[in-house]
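Encode chain A's predicted structure.
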Amino acid sequence: MEKTIVLLRPPLIFQKWENASTICPPLGLAYVAAAIRNAGFNLRCVDALGEAPFQRIILENPNFLAYGLSTPEIVERVGQCNILGISLMFSHDWPVAKSVIRALRQANPKVTIICGGEHVNAIPEFCLQDCPEIDICVLGEGEETIVDLLKTLHGDCRLEKVPGIVFRSNNSSCVRTPPRARIRKLEEIAWPAWDLFPLENS
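Encoded structure for chain A:
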């Protein structure tokens, strides 16, 4: 049966005294979205920053602000899905991103949560241990890995045969598969799926 796939960019976090926020399109996520769509999968994208770039939310620590959709708004927009891919780019976003992931898991206990991005690349085992709601971390370039991973999740679910990921085994230990070779033929990478993102807000 076809699985429902959603890609998410969480809100961005800034110190309250900063005078500007970074409103830019999520290039990496758009490339990944294009690869998924070109492989024949149906997906939706939720850009928490892009959908509400001027909405400021005071966090539990009042020295910081979140720009973008609130956690309840994100949960509502993501809705029910089978596979949720989340872009985690900056380490200072991690505490808020972690709370969003936990809320998404609570709303959809059976969802498979996949995370990628620079923060995950730096410390994937820490991410899995610090946030047990995450199932799989994607390392390096995600375009080929995510397609391979989705095919595996639709098939025999033998994650150990997918290069370039870290996942939690049945005994809760972290398993890191061999690295995936970098993409050399750049002209074969699909153009970013900008039609799935609210570029008019950038």
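The radius of gyration is 16 Å.
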